[in-house]
Fold:
Amino acid sequence: MFPIATIKQIAKQCGVSTATVSKVFNGYSDVGEQTARAVREAAESLGYFPNAAARALKTSRAYNLGVLYIDQMQHEFFSQILESFKRQAERQGYDITFISRNIGGRLMSYLDHCRYRGCDGMLITCVDFTDPLVSALAGSGIPIVSIDHVFGNSSSVLSDNVTGMQELVTHLYERGHRKIAYIRGENYDVTHRRMAGFHRACRSLKFNVPAMYLVQAGYQNPEKSAAATRQLLELDDRPTCILYPDDFSYIGGLNELERAGLRVPLDISAAGYDGTHLSQVMRPRLTTVKQDTAAIGSTAAELLIRAIENPETDVPEQVIVSGHLLLGETVSAI
Amino acid sequence: MFPIATIKQIAKQCGVSTATVSKVFNGYSDVGEQTARAVREAAESLGYFPNAAARALKTSRAYNLGVLYIDQMQHEFFSQILESFKRQAERQGYDITFISRNIGGRLMSYLDHCRYRGCDGMLITCVDFTDPLVSALAGSGIPIVSIDHVFGNSSSVLSDNVTGMQELVTHLYERGHRKIAYIRGENYDVTHRRMAGFHRACRSLKFNVPAMYLVQAGYQNPEKSAAATRQLLELDDRPTCILYPDDFSYIGGLNELERAGLRVPLDISAAGYDGTHLSQVMRPRLTTVKQDTAAIGSTAAELLIRAIENPETDVPEQVIVSGHLLLGETVSAI
DNA sequence: AATTATTACGAAAACGTTTTAGCTCGCATT
DNA sequence: AATGCGAGCTAAAACGTTTTCGTAATAATT
Structure:
């Protein structure tokens, strides 16, 4: 590439050693006032920037955070978290790199890739947490922060699914609903937490939900949610409100409801989860639980960098980020 | 971090020099059959992976592609391209890094950040192409590939907006529409190309579009498209079909149409652009032009890596990726 | 038998930093 | 006058590679 200024040239220009120059940039105290100034000016005029590779090699700190996820970039929930994570990381001087398994045709483990790139720490989210390769990474000693999953000895950020679900159910209850069906996602931690919230709310509000009202579909899967909706509509005692695993799945369900001649919210109520942009633009506006993706992402970055920069003193922490109910127009009063 | 195997340990274990070990991994021919085997086995057993920083320092090749974009990760168009770009890059042995302006609190130019990270090349997309900092990067000599914009001396990938638009308009024409309104996005290259396609189709099909049928809104902006729709509905001679800048903007328009008591496609027709997942899930299914984001992303990666790896022989190329019409249910026959 | 070509390998420098340990100088303290 | 001390600086090693150039041993050619 084009001739990039190095520490050496600055040293020569200022008539000092490279050590001194380096110290100036790294905030050492044993360098004279005017020398420091001269160095800084020379650096400025030469357009100097430290070479990241050299620095990484020497310090084994790459100022680089790895991100591990499995192909769901297209989901707004993830991409928003990623964006916010990235922003915060940048603010603190870190870049991010995606970690995957095949690099240059060769298959390697996540851990190997991470080591190869010299990531200082890893964000793990939206993956199959039971994958042994993921566990290997999590247990490697590299600083880790995970989202919506707790690993043994590292920090994590959890979207408050329990409370979110409780609030949602409570809202439905207050609007008179007792026959509330819940179409849930796959068997992830998130799902279990939402189920817990669901049941807890039912119990404290003292009403029962028949087993048939709980049906499994998947996340971000309109086809599955459509099928689940059909199943619910065939019941003798139909629910008055259906909860979907996420906003996008709601669309699939909605299609099915309309096909059955039911209007939302006149004939049946519904709610989503996530609070995506879409959910607030469509009409009727969806009642849903907005997850605070911005806070989740930036908190994750903060926790991770804290763990990286204080390897011995830092103690893992579980941060719960609460969401809030977005009242839409898809839940009618009964 | 944990003791990672180096080339030295392998050398010691095999009783050869580090030079030889290095050669084995880099496919040099001047190393004996069995020595090579021994080295490979030792590497395997030690769990060796080359240190990316050291390699980058020595070769000034980081196997790292920079990506420059402006905060629209949440848009499906971009995130799909990014995902596909990333996949192809990985396949060819490259990781990707986001390039931004503030790294560690200090503001730097895109070019500086790129140099600092030692990116071998840059993908530029979804940015303000008139930004001088972007031009500086594009003109720096670093290999560049851009999407939906042509820079002077680098390759680019262009979604075929001209043809896409032409096909769409032709389809509408064939279904009997003559009063076709076009709500367009901001003044980007993409928009101009779509306008060109629009006008070209009108001309070759020999029908005129009054100026009032062309109104500017924005991309991914349901509010603006709603306003534009309202404007169109107030015309004395209403269009029979409205084209939206993208699928998401269509939602905003749709709300407005329904508020006016118009049903799509019974009372008025509409079409989008992009072919997002959503557009094919909602009912009525949206008629739209699917952009081949997968091809765009992977082609961009291929072009970029080609330029990086053949600095002298490679000649810039403009690749046009064609999309295709997705026939939905929002355009009625007249 | 002498020369040349080929094969397999190694020594060492280099990439751009960081960091330790030590040096020099002037000044204050005994 | 001798000692100690802090301030400001440097030499040099090190990080883990790649790559050039050289050399020794063997094989092939005269």
About this structure: Residues 16-20, 23, 29-32, 35, 54, 56-60 of chain B lie near DNA strand C (CB under 10 Å from a C1').
